[in-house]
What does this fold into?
Amino acid sequence: MRKDLIRGSLVVVVFTVLLGLVYPLVMTGIAQVAFPGKADGSLVRTDGKVTGSTLLGQARKGKRYFQPRPSATDYSASVTYFGNHGPNQSATMYLTRQNLQAYIKREQPYDPGLQADQVPVDAATFSASGVDPHISKANAAIQAHRIAAVRHLSRDRVDQLVADNTDGRGLGLFGEPGVNVTTLNLALDQVTR
It folds into this structure.
């Protein structure tokens, strides 16, 4: 019994060091060499200060910016979560309806024919993490009306910025292309201040 206890403890220590220290250090080293910007968190710097990450959605105040998906955590990266509500629960239906009404209220003055059945699902529902920076191309197309009007840009220019900030499918196969709202808003600020 004593030998088994010693062997078991030794195995725990070896695997803890190997998988808890050595493996993460090796992976971090490889990531720093292969993907230095992404390994550091894809940080966004404004005037020399870190103001966020291109991997995280960030709501910007005002009508001058594209808005990401709704967030239950107010886009806080330190408390990301996905609510455990099912699609048929009244809480989910209430929040989705509330988000849909807010979206229509914000976008309809710039897209007068906009109806609830034309609003993409991602405009009214939460993402799994609550900080996803991507919206669908259909969502971006609706918001482009507002951005073009408020920033006094041509719709073609806004559409080009949307296209420039659209990420393809994961590994070319998985998911749908998505518009990165964080990088898109940064690009908009470069065009018009």
In short: The two ends are 73 Å apart (CA to CA).
